[in-house]
Amino acid sequence: METAKKGAMRKIAIVALGNGSAATARIIKAFYAQQENSHVRIYGLQNRVDNADIFYTEFGATVRDLYQSDTAIIALCAAGIVIRTLAPLLNDKGVEPPVLAIAEDGSAVVPLLGGVNGVNAMARAIAEALDVNAAITTSGELRFGTCLLNPPAGYALADIEQGKRFVADLLNGEPVSIDGDAPWLNDADLPLAAIAAHRIKITTAAQLKNSNELLIHPRSVIALIETISAEPAEDIKHALSAANIAQQSLACVVALSDAMTNMLLSDAANKLQVPLRFVSTHAALIPRSQNSLSPLFKEAKKNGVSLFIAEQPIDPNSIGIQRGNLTVIGLGPGAAEFMVPAAKQALAAAQDILGYETYVNMAGPFRADQVLHCTDNREEMLRARHAFELAAQGRNVVVVSSGDPGVFAMASAVLEALHESTDPHWHALNLQIFPGVSAALATAARAGAPLGHDFCVMSLSDNLKPWDVIENRLDHAAAADFALAFYNPISKTRPWQLGRALEIIAQHRSGDTVVVLGRDIGRPAEKLTTLTLAQLRPEHVDMRTLVIIGSSTTRTFARGDKFLADDSSASNNGDWVYTPRWYPLPPAK
Question: What average pLDDT does the chain have?
């Protein structure tokens, strides 16, 4: 059963208010996790839901944000709560995303909004997964067994408002005829008549609005841009108008591969709301699923555009390739709520996800159609080159790092691989780097603000740089009185470097200098420790620990009633830690 338009990624949010809905949420999520064109996340109310992908604190604000971001909402609560929450936003029936209310125990499935965007199909699919009946209340769909205002993928309704009036007439008893090929209506229970005043017309032609016609346009037209002007979208519109073709019949915009980096083309496709595809030669224009394209209006070439029409709707994915996308993201410290929205969107759109296995697992859950490429943590360059090879095939590829991808992570490796490459296909890709919350910033936030003034971030690993360089930098940074954040502080193969680093720092810092240790911050085994430089020992630290050593001005004070009185051990986390924004001025001469 179709639950979303083919080719469009449907974002789905399962919103839970309590643990009573946990079983229902898991069933629904498992169902959508197997769908190619959907990305589902469970949103759980903080302190009320134990397990969720994303935690929220305010139901109303969260649901309204999801609605306004065109996310399908499956609310596991009473329908009235959802209705009152979204009422101020309801305006345009044609653009609202699907919204459903489902009983916590899964006993009732009620579609509320998004009738023209597939909400009833979603309701039936979810009800089948829950083994219940969906409470479909849409009059047209109940009467006719189909939603005339929501044609299947490959077809577009000409006018939603006119369509609503048309369906109302049919509900009032008017007979209807069908002009054109509409196979999805074969099993519908329509009041058909050979001769009728009302007509469902399937056509690529642009026609004037007629209250007695329901115009549905098959997306069977390709616009090939051969000469790129300053306004390619306008050129395409003019070509369509000259050929009397409705804009809704445009399936995709196509250009030659050597124009892949031309932003005018992507802007044009965005304005026309169709995919942009690239072919190596004109001969590659024929979709892989069809062999009957015929030129329509060759005179349109004077505008640099050629139009082609097929007998059936065209799947844009069957023509050439899209411009490949390679996105490098940071997952943050590990908790889903600390991942930036852009990174989540990139993961939702990804066809391939590459990274160190631990980090790839942190980025899940994934759909069945997403391909995971897990490698060892020391294979950064191989991973980066593999990512470019996949993206050059026109795929959406994401490379994941923990923390921030630009801080001792994959962004640098990806750019190095690109810098070394002379492959034009790699350089033509759409490469993006999205930030994440680094381990240093996550640990600092848990402790307070130990990096509140100038600070220095260093890796103590000598795998990629000589140890004497590290010692030199340590000496100068400590002498400059920076607060210091250490990545990769110690490992089984590097057991002595941290001790040597502490010796260097001790030449410039007093023993009472504040130290913060953050282990697995943002993950289930999180541990935050505050102590002093004199107390710090290498055995307090492992490879998964971020070490922050304060400057001479870094200070602490008690965290109110959480202060652990009379406890001076290294595990005392009862203090706030911060470095003031000011710095002592040197004495006047």
Answer: 89
Give residue 384's identity as a one-letter amino acid code: A
Which has the higher per-residue pLDDT, 214 or 141?
A: 214
Best CATH choice for the domain 221-318 from the list 3.30.2410, 3.30.750, 3.30.2170, 3.30.420: 3.30.420
Which of 316, 306, 321, 157 minimizes the C-alpha distance to 252? 316
- Which burial class, exposed, middle or buried, applies to 132 when counting CB atoms under 10 A from its CB (0-12, 13-18, 19+)? middle
CB-side neighbour CA atoms (13 Å) of 96: 21
Element (H, E) at 557: strand 555-558
What is the residue extent of each domain of the chain?
10-137, 155-218, 221-318, 325-437, 440-578
- Give 323-359 pLDDT, tens digit per residue: 999 999 999 988 777 889 899 889 988 999 999 999 9
Question: Which pTM value belongs to this model?
Answer: 0.76
Query: Which residues have CB under 8 Å from 274's CB, separation 6+?
Result: 250, 251, 252, 253, 316
**Could you tell me how many residues make up the chain?**
589
4: pLDDT confidence band, cut at 50, 70 and 90?
very low
Query: What's the pLDDT tens digit per position in 56-95?
Result: 999 999 999 999 988 999 999 999 999 999 999 887 666 7
Q: How many CA atoms lie within 13 A of 275 on its CB side?
A: 23
Distances (CA, A) of 186 to 19, 38, 189, 308: 44, 28, 9, 28
